[in-house]
Amino acid sequence: MNKLFRSFTVRLTLWYALLFCISALVAFVGIYFLISSEIQSRTDEYLQKQVDEIARIYQLQDIATAITIARLQAEAAGEKRAFFRMFYRTGVVFASANLSQWGQVGMNRTAAAILVSGAPHFLETRHLPGPGSQRQVRIIYRRIGADIILQWGVSLDEEFALLASFKRVFLTVMVVLLAGAMAVGAFMARRAMSGVEKIARTARRITQNDLDARVPVGRRGDEIDELAVTINQMLDRIQSLVANIRRMNDNIAHDLRSPITRIRGLAEVTLARAHAGQRKQGNVSTPAGQSYLDEFVHMAASTIEECDRLLDMISTMLTISRTESGVEHLDRKPVDLWVTAKQACELFQPVAEDRGIELIMQPENVAGIVNGNEKMLQRMIANLLDNALKYTDCGGKVIVGLSVDSVPGMVCLTVTDTGSGIEDRDLPHIFERFYRADQTRGTSGAGLGLSLALAVARVHGGRIEVKSKPGRGSTFKVILPTI
Ligand code: ADP
User: S-S: 210 plus which of 205, 235, 253, 433, CB 3.0-4.6 Å?
Assistant: First the structure.
């Protein structure tokens, strides 16, 4: 639910609907008040005209004619719609319409007083008494003679019915319009956001190390297309920079290989000569000369060892680069991942025993045949096993297992250890070249094992996931597509 509301499209749609609701409501309230005030002024106009006419008849003729005309007009309007009363200033009624419907609407003494003080007329709205009655009546008072006051009332039922039906129609139209507005809003928001989604998809692909990905550019030429073009230009630039850096790295690694090989060769020749010299001289050599020679032998041996390490590092770096760039042609064939893992475990068993670690293979329960390069896959598994054993203390356990992934057609090879685990801050970096967590810097290694393992998994269309708890151990999960 929370995720739904975080979606910009949903939020935009809701904002659009809310804005529409508020504007429609403001319009409704405005129109409602306009109509009701218009109705009131028309009613007042009607009442005014009515009493003015009766007053004129009274002035031109007599009271009897005025009463007759007033009765006729009240009857014509309808007994339920209008009524009148004529009364003296004292409050004594001397003429009226049929008051069967209006008996409870009395006379307002204040009105009489106000009229006597000189006001031309007096208007008021009164509720019709009765249980739960919502009915209202508009009443006018006018002096038609020195001592005679005319009260004329008209029911507001029709006006209320009109306003009620206006409310009903408005609400129905509102619901329909709101549904329409939401649909239009959703359509417009989706259309506006579709470009952003495309950009996000591309960004995700790039995060997964696909620097070749580009944002598709539409033909609308709008802001989103402009953004896509700019992002693509930026990606071109980043890609060329990354390619330059990689090329430079590879060149350095390549160029370092020859001098190191030469140094190693020289050290090897020196060591061979020294051994030969020692044999020839036998016990003739002086003790001082012997120790001098021993030092040289030792230095040559160390030089060879260090050169081997450097050459190994350089060759791993070049293998990673070639694998990642896809330059290296891989001979592929169906490889049984379980058999490869088993062979690797057998190979590492003596190392595990040496370190007092239990290396277990879970029983096979799924088939994991991968179309891949056996040597590369062996190296990948060996790197994971080497790490698991390297970072687990004596008495710990390393478990290797094969299982099916939640995605059909994928198989998972897991290497779990009960070792040192990896800190959260190191976790995002362990697959980077030469990255080594601080706490493991004392152990042997160059920080290239996992980079190579990941490059191998990727070149086989897979990935590696890792879960780890510091002090409790880690699980590396290689997910690969099966045949
Ligand atoms: P290294 O040669 O240092 O092992 P890797 O690339 O194989 O290089 O691993 C990078 C870093 O990831 C290691 O230095 C270590 O800190 C951490 N790491 C890898 N595997 C494990 C593991 N099973 N347990 C704990 N830490 C590990």
Answer: 205
